[in-house]
Amino acid sequence: MILASVLTPLEDLLTWILTHLHTTLGLPWAWSIVALVVIVRIVLVPLTVRQIHSMQNLQAHAPEMKAIQQRNKGDRQRMNAEMMAFYKENQINPAASCLPMLAQFPVFIGLFFVLKGFENEIASKTEFKGDSLDWLHLVNIAENTKVGWGPLLIVFYALSQLTSSYLMSQTMQPAQRVMLLILPIAFIPFVLNFPSGLMLYWLTTNLWTTGQGIVTRRLVPKKLPPPKKSSRTPPKGETKSNGAQPGPKEPSAAQPPRVRKVKRKKGSRR
After folding, report:
1. How many CB atoms neighbour CB 41 within 10 A?
2. Coil, strand or helix at 134
3. Domain count of the chain?
4. Does the pLDDT of residue 248 top 90, yes or no?
5. Do 7 and 109 form a contact (C-beta atoms < 8 A)?
């Protein structure tokens, strides 16, 4: 299989990490997968920082982007052109918010191939014996998720995926946000045939994303929106002392008020 051959170096790396976590640190296989999630997320910290800054930048400029969309509601091509120009002018990269998730897909697929023959090809050949593949004595990480108590992982996966998707979609458009929230539920029939260890990896990374979103909201200060530009200029003769504008001028007491004379047209009658 072409995909498997391309990911072979990554599979070998994942196998090496899991084996050393198991044999060197003495972690059970399931907890080795949890530790693998921690390692992967630490490696992705630079992308995560860019994701946080991108989401804050999008949130700060949300009113301006909404105004562009309302102004060009009937012309999608012009709206896209103005949005791209706005992104470039304000140094916004909308794709940066998806980078950590995209970077994890190769790891996810590589772990899928590692777990396919994990029990016979890896677990049985390790030096550390006497450890089964059962996780919390409920599920076997090498078996399909639909076996035994595996569906319990599906429930936790769905809840964690909805929570992490909700936190990630705060700055998205309503249609994109609904789609991101629906996809986790739509994937459930497919993930039933995934190894339980893969679901454990997915569940752990969702919990990490949820905790990261909560910490970011509380500790990282939000970017303030840029000051709005105004075309109003003060009229000539106004002074800015004490921030007060001069009132209307009163007639001087030394000069009597002028009486306006009205000229009559010739030939007019009373």
Report:
1. 18
2. strand
3. 1
4. no
5. yes
